[in-house]
Amino acid sequence: MRRRSHYRGQSSKAGLPPGTLVHTGKLPTTGISTVSVMTYSPQNIHEYRPDNLDQCIPIKGTSDITWVNVEGLQDVELIRHFGDCYGLHPLILEDIVNTSQRPKLEDYGDYIFIVARMVGFHKDHGIETEQISMILGPGYLLSFQEGIEGDVFEPVRERMRAGRGRIRSLESDYLAYGLIDAIVDGYFTVLEDMGEFVEDLEEELAEGPTQQILKRIIGLKREIIFMRKSVWPLREVTAALERGESKLISDVSRVYFRDIYDHTIQVIDGIETFRDLLSGMLDLYLSSIGNRTNEVMKFLTVIGTIFLPLTFLVGVYGMNFKHMPELERPNGYFELWGVMVALSLLMILYFKRKRWL
Amino acid sequence: MRRRSHYRGQSSKAGLPPGTLVHTGKLPTTGISTVSVMTYSPQNIHEYRPDNLDQCIPIKGTSDITWVNVEGLQDVELIRHFGDCYGLHPLILEDIVNTSQRPKLEDYGDYIFIVARMVGFHKDHGIETEQISMILGPGYLLSFQEGIEGDVFEPVRERMRAGRGRIRSLESDYLAYGLIDAIVDGYFTVLEDMGEFVEDLEEELAEGPTQQILKRIIGLKREIIFMRKSVWPLREVTAALERGESKLISDVSRVYFRDIYDHTIQVIDGIETFRDLLSGMLDLYLSSIGNRTNEVMKFLTVIGTIFLPLTFLVGVYGMNFKHMPELERPNGYFELWGVMVALSLLMILYFKRKRWL
Amino acid sequence: MRRRSHYRGQSSKAGLPPGTLVHTGKLPTTGISTVSVMTYSPQNIHEYRPDNLDQCIPIKGTSDITWVNVEGLQDVELIRHFGDCYGLHPLILEDIVNTSQRPKLEDYGDYIFIVARMVGFHKDHGIETEQISMILGPGYLLSFQEGIEGDVFEPVRERMRAGRGRIRSLESDYLAYGLIDAIVDGYFTVLEDMGEFVEDLEEELAEGPTQQILKRIIGLKREIIFMRKSVWPLREVTAALERGESKLISDVSRVYFRDIYDHTIQVIDGIETFRDLLSGMLDLYLSSIGNRTNEVMKFLTVIGTIFLPLTFLVGVYGMNFKHMPELERPNGYFELWGVMVALSLLMILYFKRKRWL
Amino acid sequence: MRRRSHYRGQSSKAGLPPGTLVHTGKLPTTGISTVSVMTYSPQNIHEYRPDNLDQCIPIKGTSDITWVNVEGLQDVELIRHFGDCYGLHPLILEDIVNTSQRPKLEDYGDYIFIVARMVGFHKDHGIETEQISMILGPGYLLSFQEGIEGDVFEPVRERMRAGRGRIRSLESDYLAYGLIDAIVDGYFTVLEDMGEFVEDLEEELAEGPTQQILKRIIGLKREIIFMRKSVWPLREVTAALERGESKLISDVSRVYFRDIYDHTIQVIDGIETFRDLLSGMLDLYLSSIGNRTNEVMKFLTVIGTIFLPLTFLVGVYGMNFKHMPELERPNGYFELWGVMVALSLLMILYFKRKRWL
Amino acid sequence: MRRRSHYRGQSSKAGLPPGTLVHTGKLPTTGISTVSVMTYSPQNIHEYRPDNLDQCIPIKGTSDITWVNVEGLQDVELIRHFGDCYGLHPLILEDIVNTSQRPKLEDYGDYIFIVARMVGFHKDHGIETEQISMILGPGYLLSFQEGIEGDVFEPVRERMRAGRGRIRSLESDYLAYGLIDAIVDGYFTVLEDMGEFVEDLEEELAEGPTQQILKRIIGLKREIIFMRKSVWPLREVTAALERGESKLISDVSRVYFRDIYDHTIQVIDGIETFRDLLSGMLDLYLSSIGNRTNEVMKFLTVIGTIFLPLTFLVGVYGMNFKHMPELERPNGYFELWGVMVALSLLMILYFKRKRWL
After folding, report:
1. Contact state of D288 with E319 under an 8 Å Cβ cutoff
2. Short-list B5, C203, A104, E314, CA closest to D308
3. Which of A235, A350, B38, B158 has its CA 20 to 30 A from that of A220?
4. b (16+ CB within 10 A) / e for A5-28
């Protein structure tokens, strides 16, 4: 189901004029969008949920910095309202509600549009991603979350309330840094969870190859491909922020964006490492199968090689020829047993030498 | 047949001077080319089909924008006539009728020549592509469709008639954007159809590997290669449009072309993902075969290991030696049965331990 | 034999001073080199074969354009004579006669040295290539063919004689374009022939995997590698011509060279596609082998599983124990048959369920 | 355990403000951090361990060069103290104690922050890496070691004490060169150890493929991936030092950094070579398994082909038909033996011809 | 042994100050270093072996060009002496005696340091390489050979003595060209030898896959990796020489270096081709194994399928039931033979149909 719906959103929009707002979130959530506003300066901080969304939330004209966070993107009208309030380009609105964007950065001069993807990993459902869109302007930051998973921004808010760190005393670009940093920190958690999952797989594989393990290896490989798609383009985004080509990015923040850039590369490194580990496991799996077949064949061959000649021998003395001198020997039966036991031992010795036993 | 004809068009032209017009469309369509003209301004819009194609359709000299769309490329004379009317370079005419071009953008100064490929996917025929050529000049746009599949431009026309969106109030470059956008939207539909097809394959594969499934996996992989060839170069085309090096591309439109660029990369991402998924399925398939062989071998080995020794034993007591003391025992027969049953149970136990049963 | 001689030419020259002329053509051709001259202007055209090759053929000093074509490179003295006449760099002469060059373009200021490779494909011999060297100067073009295959330049000559196209009215760079275009057109023919060959292979493979087919797949893969080596570097050559860095390339011709560049990329695309197709066939082949082995094993297992127990059973009643009650039963024989038939049917049913039958 | 803890450090920091110092070293070491200071000039050298770490160690204001080396990073307060003393950016402190950084170079203007990774290889534990951080400023160098493995810097110290080489007479950038050079020299030792390990594997593999060897091949491949991750980015670091964009890097030292750059590439070359060797071994392993299965099958087939027909034959003459003329022949028994021996010999001959024996 | 010693040289130097001269040649040669000097001008040439190596060999101050060639690098003192005489950077001396350098070019302003690697191929020992170091200065060239293999420079010397070619009339950079050209010419010889070796392997493989052939394929693949490492970086070296960034490289010589660049690419092309060929052979090998196993299985299955039922049948009539009507029939025995022969023929027919026979 997940895979099937992956491109549905886009195609259901075919034929509509550009800028048409259709929410294409993968996971329907009930309830309406939640808007929360935070205005802060080094001295004070004010949090509130606006009552009346018909009027525009003021984001300019004060020395305070305003952060408007929207959770839940079902209310397309709300998004359009935001667009009208702040003069956002229609394509931005389209990208916000169409939540299958790759991470990207678009510089519109007055403001920067940033898309990133939060990633979560569950043993059973695999990778799940959620689009986070941000509009970074002078003195304000608008952020839009799909709102599927819990709120990753809460720790940032906590820090702001407590006045810890430099976040209150710097510009809105540093707030953007804080949010992206929170997203990237989440990637490390995912890598760690995956690491445990991979380790479990390795232990199970060590016990013996089953078709089930194979499916999980291939499934995880697929999940890693999806994660890679969400993380890889962030590298360019943070590189662009680090270069600081926009006047909205201060030199102080550039150092921090370089830090995120480093982390992103570390995550990509980790993803590549998992790919390599899984390829190794796949090799191990395939050769285990080959080994097992080989082992089974050896067993059958040993059994066959011992008993086929013996069965032939006893068949010989079951024949009804008139004249068969061995049959007349008083100890013929016991002598034959002796021959057969000797023959078996010889063969076993032979197989031991060949290391088939 | 499809593959064979793939390069026929080109080679049948070998030896002809450059600029020779030979239609090399893959799918012959009956009937003649259809020419439709649309002139529009923010205020009004006029659609008509020119009666007399001997005279040139006027495309300049008014403040209105003119869109001339040609469907069907069999009428090579018509194309030549267009070339004469508007002073197009002979190589452009050649590229229009020779419909195996890669997507490309050629800037001729006064006008830009753009080639894109529409893509359709059918479960049975696989990927089918159709060349769309456009000549974008100041105040006009000429577009040429092979006209195999239904008209993807109809939704754009509808929007223009209804005056929805910004398309009527902007320049011809925005119209070009609208057409390319329609083509790229079609790619998402194809991705979605492919996604369903892949999912069906996965379900069937889960039931058991058959040679039939393998052929479909490899066939789909091939189709994806063909799709990739049609989409990948569009990335460069839209990147060039986004950079807006030509004076024909306005700053307003550049943002929109960046949007198409993003979509193109998303499509390429999707194609790469399918390739990875199919590779995973191929791995799964191959190891399933190995597993099955292993399973069959185990079964044979178990049967052989149980019955070969037993058959040997009963063969022993079928021998005709004069003196065989066991044969004389009154319950010898039943004792032997006991031994044989015990032996079988032991072996079954052994195999259970080895997890062969 | 082909492979062995591939690098012989080069190594046989080791130790000689640079600029030493040793013809290293792979295919010896009898007869001497043929020199043909064509001088043309929009008004008139003159073709002749010079009688006396001791004197230099005049290529400058008139407004006509002169094309000197040399077919066959055995006559090293002739090449040296050309070098002396037109003041060519000794390394150029060396490259002309040493016919294992990669396609390349070298700008010597006064003239441009271009190497391209004609490619032919035969079902039995595979890819065969022939080096075409050209020296493009102001008002003249010298071309050198190994002269193994038929003359690809004949259609160009025909066009010139007939005065068709623009070739007579443009500079010598356009003539160079015409010749390279003829070479690239030949690539499409090769792709088409290969396409048919691949298709035949696919049909044969569908009937069943044989070691013979495998060899042909791998052989074709190898041929494609050789073709790729001949075509790939032409991309850079035509790109350099398109950029028109030399004053010898006019703006008019640049558009045409861009066209060849496009065609070259199309050919490379085609080659890559064949590689992918062949990889798919290889996968199909290998898994077919696995499938067949699996099928054979199933058959053996079914036969063994049915007859080993039955043989055991009849062995039981072939024993010579004194007291075997079943043997005394009047219908014992028929009852046993009943048991055995029932047993067989049960097993067949079991195998049907397991889909082994 | 190693794999699991690989990303733990990072994720345990999620939610903390940037610049928070949490030591995330993989291998806990007991004891506290050790600080050693060395001040030197061409004339004299002074080594000491500061008693009182509450005061800042003076690193500026003299013509001597000061090298402060910290071993062991558990004492986060100490690191913070260093940061305060020398005005280091909080992100640097974070990177020093969070020891899972990739090698990198960050130019902060007044000082350069360099991260490299020491690598050790043990047959049993595989690759172990340790982060070395350096802050290179005018007249001073701060270095931070995790302090797990023995001190690689001792030879450098020895040279300084002995006044050998140019190290005492040059700037702090040359000292940085000396330390990085020591680290890179360590890589060659690792490559050599790996080389021996690979050779041992090759010898064991030559004796016969075991699942154990396979695991070691795949394990080593994994270790090489980890080593690659530690070495590869150093290439960019040394390239940046060689370009000497910072005023802290003198022209004299640039030549030396170019030398390290060369060595780094040599190490990367070596790593790639090992990857290729291991891939070759994997191919060898897999085909050995295939070969062995083939061999076992041949053996079984030979045994079966000889004894199945013979058993059938003796079964024939064990039948109890009333009238079986062969049974009556006086030498029937011996004649049958003759036939059976002849048959066996024929089959053995047949198999010899087929090279199955 | 070769592999093990590959990185020994480097690691044995760990801890020594940079610039320490330790000869790390792989192949110890007896005897001392041989120094030969050649001074030449267009008019005259003078060759001698200096008696007294304590004094510096004059290389400047005359209009003649001086070429000093050193063969054998055991005499580290001699190298140091050269360094002192001509003011060479200590790292250069280190690189000269440490003969595991990658090909590289280092421009020291007054002189250029060039490292290249001669390559030899022997069927039994595989690839062997030898480092050639050169210092190219105004009016002089110093060259250092490990001196393991025969002297590749002899043909160059011959040409100089005979005054053939342009070598005597041009600068020392042209002499450098001559030497590098001689090295690259050697690569073609190696390619040719490898080509023959590959061809032999192909022929042997055609006869049947043996573990021995596999080892040689994988071994050759490894050798090719080593050769690639020696040749690949030369591409950059010759590209740098062709660009002629140093004032030591004249425009005349640049054309010649471009020629070497071309040859180097041809060699790399050839190496890549061999890699591809060997991959094809590996595929062929692996599938041959699969095919053989399949064939063996078919044989066993055919034998089993024919004789298991027959053995069962004769077992039936060997039973000792009191009442078995068939046994009483006068021709029962012959009738059974008829049935069995018919059964066998039917099965053979069946297998023929299935193409198993």
Report:
1. no
2. E314
3. A235
4. ebbbbbbebbbbbbbbbebbbbee
Instruction: Give residue A26's pLDDT.
Output: 54
The Cα D338–Cα C350 span in angstroms is: 43
Chains near C (3 or more Cβ pairs under 8 Å): B, E
CA distance linking residue E257 with residue E174, whole number of Å = 9
- Give the full edge-to-edge strand order of the sheet including B126-137: B45-48, B34-40, B65-71, B140-145, B126-137, B112-122, B104-107
Contact A58, A137 (CB under 8 A): no
- Spatial contact of C214 and C201, defined as CB atoms under 8 Å apart: no
Q: Nearest CA to B274 among B186, B187, B182, B206?
A: B187
pLDDT by residue (tens digit) across E36-75? 999 999 888 999 998 877 788 888 777 899 999 998 888 8
Tokens of C217: 């797949």
Question: C137 and C176 in contact (C-beta within 8 Å)?
Answer: no
Helix axes of D251-316 and D332-353: crossing angle, nearest 10 degrees = 160
Contact A332 B312 (CB under 8 A): no
Render pLDDT for A69-109 as a digit per residue (tens, 0 to 9).
998 888 888 899 999 999 999 999 999 998 888 999 999 98
- Looking up tokens 């072939």 gives C318
Q: Do D14 and A315 touch (CB under 8 A)?
A: no
Instruction: Tell me: ipTM over 0.85.
Output: no
All residues of chain A having their beta carbon less than 8 Å from the beta carbon of residue D222 are 276-277, 280
Give C-chain residues touching B297 at CB under 8 angstroms. Answer: 297, 301
Distance of CA B347 to the CA centre of its chain: 54
Angstrom distance (rounded) from CA D324 to CA B26: 76
Alpha-carbon distance E117 to nearest alpha carbon in chain C (angstroms)? 16
Distance of CA D340 to the CA centre of its chain: 62
Structure tokens at B327: 């044969």
Residue of B249, B88, B57, B241 lying closest to B172 (CA atoms):
B249
The identity of residue A309, as a single letter, is P
Selecting from E181, E265, E293 the residue whose C-beta is nearest the C-beta of C18 gives E181
H/E run at residue C69: strand C65-71
CA dihedral A99, A101, A102, A104 (to 10 degrees): -110
**Beta-bridge partners for A39:** A46, A66
- Strands E104-107 and E65-71 turn out to be unpaired
Nearest-neighbour CA in chain A from B64: distance (Å): 21
Q: Which amino acid is at C11?
A: S
Domains of chain D: 10-288 (3.30.460.20), 294-353 (1.20.58.340)
- Per-residue exposure over B109-146, b if at least 16 CB sit within 10 Å of its own CB, e if not: eebbbbbbbbbbbeeeebbbbbbbbbbbbebbbbbbbb
Q: At what angle do helices B211-231 and C251-316 cross, to 10 degrees?
A: 170
Neighbours of A60 (CB within 10 A): 10
Phi, psi angles (nearest 5°) of residue A247: -75, -10
Note whether A172 and A65 are within 8 A (CB): yes
Phi, psi of C106 (to 5 degrees): -125, 125
Q: Look at C312 and B317 and tell me if their CB atoms are within 8 Å.
A: no
Record the tokens describing residue D225, joined without a space: 């991936």
Contact B196 A300 (CB under 8 A): no
How high is the pLDDT of residue C95? 92
Q: What distance in Å separates the CA atoms of residue C308 and residue E278, rounded to the nearest whole number?
A: 46
Token pair of E27 as six digits: 């192949």
**Residue D133, beta-bridge partner list:** D115, D144
Q: Are A2 and A26 in contact (CB under 8 A)?
A: yes
Strand partners, A40: A45, A65
pLDDT for E317:
94
Q: Counting Cβ atoms within 10 Å, is residue A308 exposed (0-12), middle (13-18) or buried (19+)?
A: buried
Chains with ≥3 Cβ pairs under 8 A against A?
B, D
How many C/E residue pairs have CB atoms within 8 Å?
171
